[in-house]
Amino acid sequence: MYPFIKEGDLVTLGRIDSARIRVGDVIALPHPEEGNLIIHRVVRIDCNHFKTKGDFNLMSDGWIEKESILGIVVRVQRTEKEVKQAHVLVQRLIALLSRFSRMPRIRLKLYQTILIRGECY
Known about the structure:
Blueprint: E1 10-14, E2 26-30, E3 37-46, E4 49-53, E5 63-65, E6 71-78, E7 81-83, H1 88-98, H2 104-116
Antiparallel strand pairs: 1-6, 2-3, 2-6, 3-4, 4-5, 6-7
Helix pairs in contact: 1-2
């Protein structure tokens, strides 16, 4: 989830009804192939399936069933300070930008511009 959630950040998960999840939300789920816990952003929703992707990953995780979602990120703590949750419009903008996998440098510049306003996820 770099650059919004960084290695070493403490992440708190909360329960959420899958019907309330929207594009831009950051959720936890088991990796589709490896089974380890991953935290990625929802980039698309189709009925009872969600497409998730790390903000700087080149590929999405594919379609995830709602039953696979373990929780939603409700808090991120970074070395004695809390990282605020981005406004819903910013979350959706980040999700939209993450779809452009062929332009990683441009995405990183745009992400850095978002982060100028303050650290968020």
